[in-house]
Write a structure and sequence with these properties.
8 helices, mainly alpha, disordered C terminus, 0% strand
Amino acid sequence: MQKRTPWLLLATAIVVGLVLAYPYLALDIHKSRIDVNGALRYGVLVMHIFTATVALILGPLQFIPKVRARPRIHRTIGRCYLAIGVLPSGLTAIPVALWSGRLLTQISLSTAAALWLITGGLGYRAARRRDFAAHRNWMMRNYALTFLAVTARILVPLLLLVQIPFGRVTAGEIGAQAPSMIPVGQTLAWIVNLAVIEAVIRTRRRTSVAGQRAGAPTRDGSPA
């Protein structure tokens, strides 16, 4: 991951996180962007959004070299990321998805939430075992799932825009058609994110193996 990438992720996460959380800061159910039925469901939704925002913003900090170079700070942020962000947001994401009433949303976001919790658990376990290479890979996958909130908001308008030349959507209908495209955008978002990060992980692994082979000693003890 390039040095500038974590900072770009952090800036994007802060902006999107504030946009996501802002309508819920007043705790007014009438300002909810998602239709909810009753105070209990609204409370679960608010918890999901606030804790997801925490995860979204804390995640990029863990990829900054200066943070990783300070183990105590890295561990503290990582534990907050998982305990205050991923865990509560992942658990509340499942009922929020099921309450949506849309089959694709129910299946897709419940699956993403389960993977979010699983990758977070595997990342934590790898760190406890001091398998830092595996820990880094699992947490990269985990943040890819966290970042679906951002990617979905990019994909939804793009999916609508590509339909304009085919006459399926007009420029004036994009806003009205957006809600129907959200489940598709959300589904593609976490799939695309995982595919991209998996490609990054595999590339890093191949580069590492190639580097080790290039520096491996020959039979006479000299470098290859």
